Every structure is written in structure tokens, then in C-alpha cells.
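residues and backbone:
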Amino acid sequence: MNIKKGDTVLIITGKDRGKQGIVSRALPQVNKVIVEGLNIAKKHIRPQGQTRQGGIIEKAMPIQVSNTMLICTECGKPTRVAHDEENTCQVGDVVRIEETRPLSKMKHWRLVEILKRGSGIVPVEEVLAEVDPDLTSTTSDVEPSEE
């Protein structure tokens, strides 16, 4: 299951369609998540002696994971999550994937090709140069003098 506790998700079907919320609990055994403040049901509670008062309470009910989409933490848009099960990719690789019929219970895509091979470790200078060339410092190019 790709969605964990604390993730922000978008509900894509049901009465709360289009709303966003934070996952308060993940239930991987049944492929469901509980999202704070969404998919609310009213539950009637009977009083139990002196300890608990009766009444109607609102409770967040579980939602199928397939009815939610993970919100990207960087861009804020709904995204799909993909994993490389064959371990052919490294950190920094640019890849092309395609959606297919279900290959397994959770996998609906396959790796087509690796467009650009990364080194496995992305240097901070390269990332800064792609984002903003003015942020790169020339001090790393100068070697320290020996005294």
C-alpha cells in the first residue's frame, strides 16, 4: 500500500469527492485508510451505566485506498506512486513507465525504459544548478591552500 499515516490525500470518488485530508490511520490488511474529517458516519451510542453517556457521535469511516490519490509534497498536485520491483533504477534516474493491466495485486504499471541514468547519488550542486543557476557557489571550485 502506497499511502501511509500522515500523508495528504485527495478523495476521488464518493460523497467527499474533491476534498483533501490527512490520513490518520492506515489499514493495509483490508486496503483502507481513515482520513481525518472525511467519510463521516453518525453512530448511535447506547449509554453504559455511569461511565459512558449515550447519544449520536460522528466517526470517520475507512475509505478504500483505490478511492484516494496521494498529494505530492513538492508541487501539491495529485500523483501516482510507482516502485521499481526489479531494482534496475537508481536514485536520480529518469524513467518512462506505462500503465498496464494488473501485473499483481498492487502493480498496474511496468518500467519501459531508463531515459537517463543517474549516478545513484545526486550532488547538491546539480540540483541547485537545475533549480536556479545563481545559487551555485564558486567557492567549491577553489581548492584550499596548504599552509
